[in-house]
């Protein structure tokens, strides 16, 4: 996810992922689209990288400044 967001914003090809977190951050996600496909017939219509790019460039988001 960090790589996809960095690519969408023109950031580093290999962003630094520290493993640190803030209060309220989601730390572990174990969801799989297989269940929704099997149980509901749902299949995503947007590729992951395209969805992340749209998310990163959403008009209400503030620009992210690179840490130096």
Structure at a glance:
The protein is mainly α and 68 residues long.
Describe it for me?
The protein has 68 residues and is mainly alpha-helical. Helices cover 35% and strands 0% of the residues. The protein contains three helices and no strands. Helix 1 (2-8) packs across helix 3. It is globular, with a radius of gyration of 15 Å. It starts with a helix and ends in a 12-residue tail after the last helix.
Give the arrangement of secondary structure elements.
Layout: H1 2-8, H2 33-40, H3 48-56
Helix pairs in contact: 1-3
Binned strand content: under 5%
How would you sum up the global shape?
Answer: globular
Count of extended strands: 0
Give the oligomeric state of the chains in this entry, treating copies of one chain as homo and distinct chains as hetero.
Answer: single chain
Helix content: 25-40%
Number of helical regions: 3
What is the makeup of the main sheet? Answer: none
Low-pLDDT windows of residues? none
Which descriptors apply to this entry?
68 residues, mainly alpha, globular
């Amino acid at each position: 996810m960090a790589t996809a967001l960095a690519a969408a914003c023109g950031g580093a090809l290999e962003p630094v992922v520290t493993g640190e977190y803030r209060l309220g951050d989601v730390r572990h996600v174990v969801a799989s689209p297989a269940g929704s496909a099997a149980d509901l017939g749902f299949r995503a219509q947007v590729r992951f990288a395209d969805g992340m790019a749209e998310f990163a460039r959403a008009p209400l988001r503030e620009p992210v400044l690179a840490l130096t």
